[in-house]
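RETRY 2/3 - previous attempt timed out on the joint model. Re-submitting the same 682-residue input unchanged.
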Amino acid sequence: TLSEIATMAGVTPSTVSRALNPAASHLLSKKTSERILALCDHVGYRPSLLARGTATGFTYKVAMILHDMEKDLNAHDWNRITCATSAFLQESGYSLVLLRTSEKGTSMDMQVSHFLMSGIADAYITSPSMLKNNTLEMLNSLKSPLFVICEHGVPFPVSDGVLRSDADAFKQVWSRIPKEMHGKICFLSTINDNTQRLLTNIKRAAWDLGIDANNAISTLSLARTSKVPAMEYAEAYHQTKKMIKSFNQFDFVWCISDFFALGVKDALTECGRCPGKDVFILGYGDLETFPGVSEKPVLSTISANTHEIARNMCSVIMKKLDGEHTDIVTVKSSFISRSTF
Amino acid sequence: TLSEIATMAGVTPSTVSRALNPAASHLLSKKTSERILALCDHVGYRPSLLARGTATGFTYKVAMILHDMEKDLNAHDWNRITCATSAFLQESGYSLVLLRTSEKGTSMDMQVSHFLMSGIADAYITSPSMLKNNTLEMLNSLKSPLFVICEHGVPFPVSDGVLRSDADAFKQVWSRIPKEMHGKICFLSTINDNTQRLLTNIKRAAWDLGIDANNAISTLSLARTSKVPAMEYAEAYHQTKKMIKSFNQFDFVWCISDFFALGVKDALTECGRCPGKDVFILGYGDLETFPGVSEKPVLSTISANTHEIARNMCSVIMKKLDGEHTDIVTVKSSFISRSTF
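RETRY 2/3 succeeded.
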């Protein structure tokens, strides 16, 4: 027990308790907490989370509520945010629970309501698919605070969370594009994709710099054959080759994703153009630094700074759970210049 | 409280408790449990999970321990298993916690040990990256049962879980290949990929049918440029076109993944061959039924039956937690014939 460990270590029980609590161990010297931890490891002792929960009223869990779980966890940005959030939460002694909802009224949807009403976690994070599917109403049953990661231009449905803002990165891109290139820029996305918002933000950044965005940038749409990132490369590559005449009218291809940009890059290269020299390509998502994608990233891109998003998200959650006042935190995206622009 | 709800519903408190417990609600008539649930919803009542945990000693959590969290959740098979497991657990009133470990001795690794020793969950599932990285030793600190999903041919490190077996599917494939094609079959994978085991299993299936596997199937390796599924299509497509002479020696291309197979299919088609007619292509993973990939799957493939794996995994876990005897359950893969073979 705690008091036995305390006696063995020659400290008070509350010192042992602090050493074992990641959120409180900074109150002790590193040497003391390491000594106590080594002793606990030696005898295989940890206070049960259930007992601790009963004493403090905390579950030490943060739940992420997902609607399209397969898609969300497979999307590179959200995958990275989930993984980094899990790591930051663990540093604070918390862990991440996944809750998978479904259409309203289904058994899976009811099970999640059930969990929420039973206080399964101390705080909740919604995923992009929850926001897209307007399933936020189920979150009304929450007894605990709800946190959201929203993109600039999307209404922020609650009072806490992280706002992603591309505005400064987009301005940086515009200020690097020579004026002679205006009118020869295309924004590449798919038909029926929810890209209008992104294009609006790109144009707004141009207007802020006094650029006539409507004349500077055109749109080029690809037929959508698949909805997973894994097949976007193939879509962009093959369709760029087919539509090469349209592409040859442009000197700058601003792509909605890095997968698109990589497909465009390979197709244009095969058609005799030289990305970074006679044609410029910009992606979105910083895919090439995703573990295992590329040892030597070449694509110029915009990074949403997923690590910073997760760090700020966890910090806001921990503050809120400590009873401190919190606000929406803005995390700015970064323009990353590599070979293609 | 529970007894107030019971009085309002005119039933005993234990009936209310059963109606609210997904694992016990089958003991009541559907009508009764629906009536009680509607009443609880109306007054916004659910017993707190913390209180229930204190009473029963259960956390009602199953933790999945991941080493390369980003890669595991991004790999289609594991993504599907994770999502389906989460859904099946929810049906039993359990939820899935993600624990993210790191290299031995790091702070993240210690945090996970900490969680395990505190009894964060009632049962644990390891992920492929945990097994690959030989990080299983940290699981020694577990007080609760550990479950593993292993592939046939990989040593099964614990006594419970699900064994994936491709043997029957591979035999089905071999029995469909005409004898004249033996010697014109290639197994396509990447250099340095851990594919030896899969090839061994493919050959073993041939031998079981009396086929001289060493003469029937050759290997063809692609240079590996990336380790994520998202770029495998591009690798296979471009390298097939470059190595078209090698490919033209074969009538049957047996690919290590569906992404590879799709890339090969598109490249061979462009080079004038007709998949399904004068060349046969087989993938692995049933990627095209992943949400959003393809409305009309064409690729012949082998499905690992991830939904069945998850269903059996949850059923074994629940049995074990009920104190029943459990064994390793084998889930067989299926051969799915579509247009390309």
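The mean pLDDT of chain B is 88. Closing ticket.
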